[in-house]
Amino acid sequence: MKFIAAACLAGSLLLAGCAGTTTTPSSSGTSAQSATTGGTASKVAGSAAPVYPGGPLTPITSSEAHSQSVVTLAPPADMWDRIRRGFKMPNLESDLVRDREQWYASRPDYIQRMTERSNKYMFHIVEELERRNMPTELALLPYIESAFNPQAISSARAAGMWQFMPATGTDFDLKQNIFRDDRRDVVASTRAALDYLQKLYRMFGDWQLALAAYNWGEGSVSRAIAKNQRLGLPTTYSDLSMPAETRLYVPKLQAVKNIVANPQAFNAELPLIANHPYFQTVTLTRDLDVELAAKLADVRLEDFRALNPAAHKPVLLAAGTQQILLPWDNAAVFQRNFDAYSQGQYASWTAWVVPNTMTVADAAQRSGMSESDLRALNSIPPRMLIKAGSTLIVPRGARVKEDVTALVADSGHLSFQPEIVNRRTTIKAGRNDSVASIARRYKLAPANVAEWNDVKPNHAFKRGYSVVVYLPVRAAPAARVGSGGGQARGRASTKRGSSAVKATAARGNVTKSSGKQQVVREKRGGTPAKKKR
User: Hey, which residues are catalytic here?
Assistant: First the structure.
């Protein structure tokens, strides 16, 4: 009986093994397809039994091998972690990098101040970089340019945390007028800076060269590359001959990157920057005083200005500044308070287009301001007339119901011409000089010459007699203010530069020679690299 039971058991096992290894033509085809497509069929089947290839395995070709980005399940702990995950630029190794690392590491207070300042802007910048698939190291560039101060302005007149020159700002649609300067605007300047960096990367195909061009100008970098090519030399960033500022530019960024990547190695402490938007945009529907806007949003005035640094004047014009930035939790507070506001006008200031050329005193009288207040508010220099068509910020009367138009808000400018001043001068009378001859010589009225010297209109002067005349003297060359930042702005031949020669006659640097004024012009300021930007 035991033998019969054992035989039955062996037979059943044999039948089960045969059933498990039997394949049909259809299953064989499925197995082959699965081996070719890398198991796609089994994935589609979902709950179906796994299918194993029946044929020999073959190696894949190099063209079939490719890497896939690994998706990290855990979200970034903070913005520093998020920035580290997006590093893409090759590291620069040099003594200059070590030198800059020591410079920053030995100034913990400086690092603390500028990193705390960046808290308001970092999330937005990293979001834009990731959206464009750009290296997140570039989010650290404002540390190098401006220490993340959106109000920063260089000696060469580069402005904002991305340090745009006036001409380059215009090239990238950053408006600059007496009401606002978009080179300081957080959102607009970030958009323009990333557009410019992308353009430079497409030109040079290398991020280090693109950064050199951002600092020095693409024309300068192109010429340096061409020079090395003619000499048969390498054309990397480290091999080019460039100014000291540009030579240190990428090492500075690399040093900051190294500190962010491993702050413990440099005994640095980075303040927490949450992986969350700091601000959101709010549409501005009415002209609004800056102080009232901060009050309605329940934020400090300095915090409001830090998020809206483009505004020059004490009033925001809805037709020009269509959106303002507010801390995330304060946007709803502002809207609720704005809708409920019933304490008078939203704006106590407005824009007035001067109908004809006039003195500052006349303009002050017509606007209801003191001359000193009008000068201070509109940055009017002394001894100047306000030219017709200029735009001034003046008090808004209770009867004014309309906000400033888009035309004025977008194209408002302030132009001046020298005020003519009559200056008392004595001249020596020559042989046969008379009231009439001197009047003809200096294009004066004979009656005036006679009155100034207490003589008759037909009087003849003795030779060598000191004759008193009042001659017109121009106070200074004509000036035009476009963005509240200085004199008229011309565009230079370099991409990020502009002519900045300023006449100094307004400061009294005027010499006389042969009865003619000679205006002394001062040299341009700023470092050579900045001027070429």
Answer: 145
